[in-house]
Amino acid sequence: MEKTIAGKNITVNEEGYLTDFSQWNEEVGQELAKEANIALTPRHWEVIKYLQTEQKNQVALSIRRVGKSGIVDIKEFYQLFPQAPLKTATKIAGIPKPASCI
């Protein structure tokens, strides 16, 4: 299904995750963050870029892996993305919902 985000028509699945990463850009990320009531800081962007890199490298993402990444610890991850951190962060990053998320 299509959704207009940051003035662009974006293809998303029924949960609102982008189905085509090439449609993602930082403005789209900003809009998705606003929908989640998150004001992105440079720290958020660090985590988002890390998640995108891991996805590109086909690494299975999990809260534990993110916590051991050296990028952010689990406590800070929950502070940055309070509601379902991994689901929220991956949605903002424009990547598919990790299999470890229900």
Features:
2 strands, globular, 5 helices, 102 residues, mainly alpha
Q: What is the N-to-C succession of helices and strands?
A: EEHHHHH
Number of helices: 5
Structural class: mainly alpha
Indicate the percent of residues in helices. Answer: 40-55%
How large a portion of the residues is in β-strands, by DSSP E? 5-15%
Number of strands: 2
Description:
By secondary structure, the chain is mainly alpha-helical. The protein has one domain. It has five helices and two strands, in the order E-E-H-H-H-H-H. A two-stranded antiparallel ribbon has the order 1-2. Helix 1 runs antiparallel to helix 5 and helix 2 packs across helix 5. The chain starts with a strand and ends in a 9-residue tail after the last helix.
Structural topology:
Blueprint (H helix, E strand, L loop, with lengths): L1 E4 L2 E4 L14 H10 L6 H15 L6 H5 L6 H7 L4 H9 L9
Antiparallel strand pairs: 1-2
Helix pairs in contact: 1-5, 2-5
Brief characterization of the structure:
With 102 residues, this protein is mostly helical. It is built from five helices and two strands; from the N terminus they run ββααααα.
